[in-house]
Amino acid sequence: MFTSKSKPIKSSEITPESLYLNRRDFLKGIALFGTSAILAACGITPTPEGVKTVVPTPVVQGGDAPTSYEYITSYNNFYEFTLDKTQVAEKASQFRTSPWQLEVYGLVNKPKTYSIDEILSKFPAEERIYRLRCVETWSMVIPWQGFSLSKILNDVEPQSSAKFVRFETIFAPDQMPEQKSGLYPWPYQEGLRLDEAMHDLTILATGLYGKPLLSQDGAPIRLVVPWKYGFKSIKSIVKIEVVSEQPTTFWHTVVPSEYGFYANVNPNASHPRWSQATETRIGESTQRPTLLFNGYEEDVAELYVNMDLNINY
After folding, report:
1. pTM of the entire structure?
2. For labeling, which of 136, 140, 245, 294 is most exposed (least CB within 10 Å)?
3. Phi first, then psi: what are they for 310, rounded to 5°?
4. CA distance readout (Å), 59 to 48, 191, 298
């Protein structure tokens, strides 16, 4: 498991060699099954006729094995498309991710608007294998391809008055059917303190399992903050604004008593409607203890010294 105090683990170092060499065949097989990905969420993995599907089962440090590509791409939270986690892949299948621009502005010396091609060429991605924990008590382990958010922030040069970073998802109700409803305050917005955003563990992801992100996983570019609950890792980002005041965030606006601004994974602070003390890894049937800061305590606890994590939830 990569942390800021250790080098990233390469796929070739965590996966049995025979399976690693067959990964491309595996991914080609996955790319062909389309809407049948929904079946995978129910434990059914169809194999296209004539295609040999190899499912890697690597084991990484700490005993965590990456969640299968099928589950990662067929069981998703993405309310802009649907509230049904098993239907997101189908609803998002026609979402257009090109052309795409990311505007970075606000309290910076060099505001910029990047195309996705510029991002991919200027900020080469590396593999980061991170746990992703959902506030609904399920979790995954995902081999992301991404780069530290700090690289883009350093590129635009935050000013001395900068304290927070605000993120915004695309607003495209013609493609995202749930954005047509007035149930939620679209577009989706999230935020981090500047020091959280600059932390080496915080990345912008552009792919997973060696492939470009699919729409249901937040294509073409999304945030990943592995020590926080998954709703902080905003998808399909079009705006990053550097600001001086704590920004408004989506779920804190909708249900402030349940979803705080910080959203650090904390087994000792229960959600008002359920305990956060245990979690279930997608693809497994047994519960496991929830780790403080999702297992990244050694790396990030210093960010919250003298803060009460039950108040700053």
Report:
1. 0.82
2. 245
3. -85, -25
4. 27, 33, 22
C-alpha to C-alpha distance for 132 and 224, rounded to whole angstroms: 8
Residue that the structure tokens 């089962």 belong to = 57
Q: Which CATH architecture has domain 94-304?
A: Alpha-Beta Complex (3.90)
Predicted local confidence at residue 63, as pLDDT: 63
Structure tokens at 24: 């491309």
Q: What is the pLDDT of residues 209-243, one digit of tens each?
A: 999 999 999 999 999 999 999 999 999 999 999 99
> What is the tens place of the pLDDT at every residue in 273-299?
999 999 999 999 999 999 999 999 999
**Average pLDDT estimate for 138-155:** 97
Say how far apart CA 220 and CA 212 lie, in whole Å: 8
**Mean pLDDT of the 256-277 span:** 96
Residue pair 61/131 in contact (Cβ under 8 Å)? The answer is: no
Task: Please provide the distance, in angstroms rounded to a whole number, between the alpha carbons at the two ends of the chain.
Answer: 25
Pairing outcome for strands 138-148 and 278-281: parallel
* Cα atoms in the Cβ-side hemisphere of radius 13 Å centred on 138: 12
How many Å apart are CA 15 and CA 66, to the nearest integer? 10
Of 199, 251, 190, nearest to 222 by C-alpha is: 190
At 188, list the tokens: 């989706």
Pairing of strands 138-148, 126-133: antiparallel
Cα-to-chain-centroid distance, residue 271:
21
